[in-house]
Amino acid sequence: EDQVTQSPEALRLQEGESSSLNCSYTVSGLRGLFWYRQDPGKGPEFLFTLYSAGEEKEKERLKATLTKKESFLHITAPKPEDSATYLCAVQGMNTGFQKLVFGTGTRLLVSP
Amino acid sequence: DTEVTQTPKHLVMGMTNKKSLKCEQHMGHRAMYWYKQKAKKPPELMFVYSYEKLSINESVPSRFSPECPNSSLLNLHLHALQPEDSALYLCASSIRTGLGTEAFFGQGTRLTVV
């Protein structure tokens, strides 16, 4: 069974204090690893898709990386508007259609 | 434009009511999904439609009835719900159901069953 574990559960940073969020996964034949951002009471907002180990993608202050066992979301010089829950999800060979298996997320709070 | 529109944003219904949630996308996506999300939990898949046909039902109780009238619309019909069904209901779409394609989510309908 595909599984995703995210850590830490919650993270508090000062504005400008860089850090990383971790997503460890177990999947039979990774077909895609996805990062989403979710604000309270809203739907998840798509950030990145990673397909194979060694791949990296960047968007503004965010950079996602992927190894064979985990993915990291690096946040450089965060701002208060980066505060949100960051969700990691995987899709494996066994899930067939577009079934995303989500982790429980990391709640990020960036203080001014 | 990666917009998925859900209506209503909020819904309060009694256990004997019948209501429907609506979802619309105009991105030409041929796969649409319903997810359920409880507070501080990740989204959980309920249904998948591929080319307007139901392809996945994650053992969802029959009081939830999905419908896909055309490639742009997805409905979720609700009947005789229980208070524990209160949650954020999320619609999503993707260009296809091929592996490795990202899903785009709507803003959700906050459902409260009283």
Mean pLDDT of chain A: 94
Backbone CA Rg of chain B: 13 Å
Global shape of chain B? globular
Portion in strands of chain A? over 45%
How would you describe the overall organization of this protein?
The complex is a heterodimer of chains A (112) and B (114). Chain A has no helices and 11 strands. Chain A has 112 residues and is mostly beta strands. Chain A is globular. In chain A, 38% of the residues are buried. The mean pLDDT of chain A is 94. By secondary structure, chain B is mainly beta. The mean pLDDT of chain B is 93. At the A-B interface, strand 4, strand 5 and strand 9 of A face strand 5, strand 9 and strand 10 of B.
List key phrases describing it.
heterodimer; A: 112 residues; six-stranded mixed sheet; five-stranded antiparallel sheet; globular; B: 114 residues; mainly beta; four-stranded antiparallel sheet; 11 strands
Short description:
Chain A is mainly β. Chain A has strands at 3-7, 10-14, 19-26, 30-38, 45-50, 56-59, 62-66, 70-75, 84-92, 101-102, 106-111.
SSE blueprint and pairings:
The complex is a heterodimer of chains A (112) and B (114).
Chain A: E1 3-7, E2 10-14, E3 19-26, E4 30-38, E5 45-50, E6 56-59, E7 62-66, E8 70-75, E9 84-92, E10 101-102, E11 106-111
Parallel strand pairs in A: 2-11
Antiparallel strand pairs in A: 1-3, 3-8, 4-5, 4-9, 6-7, 7-8, 9-10, 9-11
Chain B: E1 4-7, E2 10-13, E3 18-25, E4 31-37, E5 44-50, E6 53-57, E7 64-70, E8 73-79, E9 87-94, E10 104-105, E11 109-113
